[in-house]
């Protein structure tokens, strides 16, 4: 690592995740389970750690207990080598108040920067599903001498209205940064495509500190990284874009190269799970060259008995499928599905119990949900709507520990 610039990583994990309710009723968005045995925060942490960034602060705020516990029990690096991943709660260093925005979160935590004295600060979001080698982005950032480099992903212009959009010239310099514009700009080499901001930034340390101080003193600012800090640095002519298309992740397949999902809504969360279970998955969890890291509980392997079977599905350890039929689903660890039950197109989080003869279709069941013998979820969406959350796309979502009775009895 000799001669490498010194880097501090900051992961913004304070997100409330209102659009993922009820999955966020009891936990921060980055702590939401994903993909059978991960949590959303594992994706960004895996990308950073795999790239050799080993000094990481995870800024937490909202209902952060399960996130703090997950990070402190799962993500242990070598203290001998000065490596750490540490959750940093809102410390109220500047008075008795919570973070007022993502920029304020970093401003209130500048003591971490002063302690570490990094050359560059990597600021990544915590709730996206993707693989990326941030070291390649850092190399470009250092080479161009930009004050900030923003990761941009190419999206069709028609879809770009939902994102922060980047207008850049042919040299990669950002000329405008627009939050959810009605008429998104296009990339220099393709009129049909826009650079959407991935919420991943790299700063020269002095540039970020100066910008945060100026922002903190501005009473009209929302103190948001994308809304305030980046536009300020664009105006100062020191912002550059990094094209995510240029990122070569070891072991990537042609199909999952460049995959990035913002799973901020229930439908996006559901769709990203369905992306995992096709024969040639759109996102491949089995890339050993760039592993998504996590800690799995000490559970026995999954078991299929009494002709129980699962097709096009992921089944986590400790789960038992007994005489039941599972299709196109992600079954997390420690799930029991009993005789005669049917589970189709669903996402079952840890500890779910599905009783005999029950039916679950196009549903997300949070931890420890119990579906009683013969009960039905996702069969009559209108009836479900009266009792549960139903997403815009018609996915039925049950919060932690809900018990579903058989209403026909």
Structure description:
With 409 residues, the protein is α/β, with parallel strands linked by helices. It folds into 2 domains: 7-267, Spore Coat Polysaccharide Biosynthesis Protein SpsA, Chain A; 301-404, Hexapeptide repeat proteins (UDP N-Acetylglucosamine Acyltransferase, domain 1), CATH 2.160.10.10. The protein is built from 9 helices and 30 strands. The strands form 6 sheets. Strands 1, 4, 5, 6, 8, 9, 10, 11 and 12 form a 9-stranded mixed sheet that branches. Helix 6 crosses helix 7. The protein is globular and about 70 Å long.
Notable traits:
20% helix, alpha/beta, Spore Coat Polysaccharide Biosynthesis Protein SpsA, Chain A, 28% strand, 6-stranded parallel beta sheet, 9-stranded mixed beta sheet, 30 strands, 409 residues, UDP N-Acetylglucosamine Acyltransferase, domain 1, 2 domains
Uncertain regions: pLDDT < 50 for 5+ in a row? Answer: none
Total count of strands:
30
CATH topology of the largest domain: Spore Coat Polysaccharide Biosynthesis Protein SpsA, Chain A
| Overall 3D shape | globular
Structural class, judged by helices and strands? alpha/beta
What does the largest sheet look like? 9 strands, mixed
Number of domains: 2
C-alpha Rg (nearest Å): 22 Å
CATH superfamily of the largest domain: Spore Coat Polysaccharide Biosynthesis Protein SpsA, Chain A
- CATH class wording of the largest domain: Alpha Beta
Helix run count: 9
What's the N-to-C terminus distance?
67 Å
Helix content: 10-25%
Q: If you average the pLDDT, what whole number results?
A: 91
């Amino acid at each position: 690592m000799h001669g490498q610039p010194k880097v501090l990583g900051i992961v913004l994990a304070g997100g409330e995740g209102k659009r993922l309710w009820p999955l966020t009723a009891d936990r921060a968005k980055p702590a939401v389970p994903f993909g059978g045995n991960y949590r959303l925060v594992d994706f960004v942490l895996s990308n950073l750690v795999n790239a050799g960034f080993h000094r990481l602060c995870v800024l937490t705020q909202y209902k952060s207990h399960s996130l703090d516990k997950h990070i402190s029990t799962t993500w242990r690096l070598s203290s001998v080598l000065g490596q750490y991943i540490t959750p940093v709660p809102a410390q109220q260093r500047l008075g008795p108040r919570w973070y007022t925005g993502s920029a304020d979160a970093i401003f209130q935590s500048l003591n971490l920067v002063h302690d570490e004295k990094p050359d560059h600060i990597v600021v990544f979001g915590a709730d996206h599903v993707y693989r990326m080698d941030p070291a390649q982005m850092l190399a470009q950032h250092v080479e161009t001498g930009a004050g900030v480099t923003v990761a941009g992903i190419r999206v069709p212009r028609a879809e770009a209205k939902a994102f922060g959009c980047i207008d850049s010239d042919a040299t990669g310099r950002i000329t405008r940064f627009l939050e959810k514009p009605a008429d998104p700009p296009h990339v220099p080499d393709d009129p049909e495509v826009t650079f959407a901001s991935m919420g991943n930034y790299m700063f020269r340390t002095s540039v970020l500190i100066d910008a945060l101080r100026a922002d903190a003193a501005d009473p009209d600012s929302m103190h948001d990284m994308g809304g305030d800090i980046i536009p300020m640095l664009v105006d100062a002519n020191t912002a550059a874009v990094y094209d995510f298309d240029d990122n070569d992740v070891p072991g990537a397949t042609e199909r999952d190269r460049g995959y990035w999902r913002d799973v901020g809504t229930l439908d996006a969360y559901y769709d990203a799970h369905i992306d995992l279970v096709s024969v040639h998955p759109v996102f491949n969890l089995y890339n050993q060259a760039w592993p998504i890291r996590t800690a799995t509980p000490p559970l026995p392997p999954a078991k299929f008995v009494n002709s129980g079977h699962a097709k096009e599905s992921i089944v986590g350890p400790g789960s038992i499928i007994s005489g039941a039929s599972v299709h196109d689903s992600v079954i997390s660890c420690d799930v029991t599905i009993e005789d005669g039950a049917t589970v189709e197109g669903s996402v079952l989080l840890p500890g779910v119990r599905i009783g005999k003869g029950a039916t679950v279709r196009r549903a997300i069941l949070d931890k420890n949900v119990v579906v009683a013998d013969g009960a039905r979820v996702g069969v009559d969406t209108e009836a479900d709507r009266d009792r549960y959350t139903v997403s815009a796309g018609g996915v039925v979502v049950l919060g932690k520990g809900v018990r579903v009775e058989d209403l026909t009895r």
